[in-house]
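Sequence only, no structure available. Ideas?
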Amino acid sequence: MSGNLEFPMNGGDGANSYSKNSRYQGEAINVVKEMIIEAIAKKFDISLSFSSNTIRIADLGCSVGPNTFNAMKSIVEAIEWKYHSKNLTTETPEFQLFFNDHASNDFNTLFTTLPPDRQYFAAGVPGSFYGRLFPKSSIHLMYSSFALQWLSKVPEELLDNGSLAWNKGKIHYTIASKEITNVYAAQFAKDMDAFFNARADEIIVGGMMILIMPGLADGVQYSQDPGRPFFYAFNQSLLDMVKLGMINEDEVDSFNLPLYTTSPKEMTKVVERNGCFSIERMEVSDTRPKNDGPTNVPAILTHFRVGWEGIFTKHFGSKIFEELFERTLNKSAEISSMLESSCGKGTQLFLVLKRK
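Reply:
I predicted one. C-alpha cells follow.
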C-alpha cells in the first residue's frame, strides 16, 4: 500500500528518543506478560516446528529497544519451556526473529542494541504491516504491541470542507463529533481487513498471533478515552498559536492525527469477517501497574512527543513543534484534572488468535 503514512518513533538514544522514553509501553506489556506466557503454554503448537526445527517469530511495528527485546525474550523462553515440559526427545528448535517496522525506522539503533546473550537469529524486515511482509505460510508466531492504533492514512473526508466529516479546527476524533468518529472507525476497519488478509497468508496453519493495542471496553464512550485530555491540550495549544498569528488556521484544519482506539466488539467483527483466525482470548486490561502513584503528566507528554514529533514536524515544522510542545506542557495541570473524569480502567486490548 504505497500511500501508507510513515512516521516512526524518534530514533537514536538521545533525551527525546523512543529508547529512552518508552517506559509506559514497557510497563503495559509487563501487565500482560503472564497472559502471553500462558497463551503460549496453552495454545502454541510445538509440532509446527518439527519439519524444519526452526521457529520463526515476527514483531510487527517493533520500533527500537528495549521493549521489543524484552517481549521477544519472554516469547522465546515460553516456547523453550513448553518444549522442555513435554520431555520431547527432539532437540529444542532454533529461533529466527524478524523485527519489522517502516523503512525509516531507526534499525541502526535497534541492531546495535541487540542483547548480546540472545537465543535467536535476528533479521530486520522493512515495510508497512498493512501489506505482505513474509513468504506464504512461513511464520509460526506473530506479535505486535502498540502499533496497530496507527492508521495507514488520514481519512480523506476529514480534509474535505464540503463533507459532514470535515474536522475543522480539531486534530482528532476524541474531541470531535460522531461523524468524525465514524470516519476514523471506517478507516480502522479497512486497515484491519488489509492487516488480517496479509497475516492469513503469512502465518502457518495452527500458528499464533498475539496483539496488544490501546483499547476501550465495549460501551465506553470515545469521549472517555484516557488519551482525550492530551489530544485536547495539543489542539488548544495549536489554536492559541493561530490566535497569536504563529500559524494559520488552514494548517490546523488540514492536520489530523491518524490514531484510533478500538473495542473488543469492533475487533471481533474484523476477525470474523476475515474468517481465517479463531479468537482464543480477548480482553481489555488496565495498562497501569498496581499501586502506581498519581499520573505524571509531563512524563506522559514526553512519551507522546516520541511518537508524534515526526508527524507534527512534517506538517508544521520543527520550530513550531518545539513551541507547541512547551505550550502543551504548560497545560499539565489542566490535563491532570481532565484525566480524573476519563476512563482510567481498561485501556489496553489483549488478543490471542490462532490461524485456522
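The chain has a mean pLDDT of 89.
Hope that gets you unstuck.
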